[in-house]
Amino acid sequence: MASFPLTRRRFVQAVGGASLLTLISCNRQEQTMVTLYTLGDSILDCGRYNEFGVHPGQLLVQNDDRLFPEFQGQDLASRGSARLEHRARDGATVVGLPSQAQGLQVGKKAIAMITVGGNDLLMGLLQDTGSGITAFANALDTFVQQLPIRPVLLGSVYDPTLGDDSRNFSGVDPAIAPRLPR
Asked: pTM (2 decimals)?
């Protein structure tokens, strides 16, 4: 069996998964199916980037106990009927979120997970000095407000340098980030 060291990404996924399960409070007597909707970018659409072809949404709905035995019995399917509506797409940006939500048929119990921002940063937002960040924030806020799913869990963009500016691969001075609006 392959060993899976605890990485920052795994930690964030585990915390997100635990939060997700707490939020839905599935009751065994209530047989309403819960649907997990994944929207956004490669943080949620990452199956092609690992040798097992798995992504967070499918693991939250039904864990692969062979790969992650420490999460056995902690997935949505262990708490009742659950399904995944995987809409996230590798390479997505904030402007593409509305197209991922087109045609949603939301049932009684639904949860949305959204990750977005990394591709926006790589496509120029990283060098923005204000108006682009504001436009990004407004677009994301509008999308979340109009999404007919609650609760909504938002994933943030992780720092691939883990705070070590000497590993900066972007060519943009890291000192610009503290000046951006939060």
From this structure: 0.77
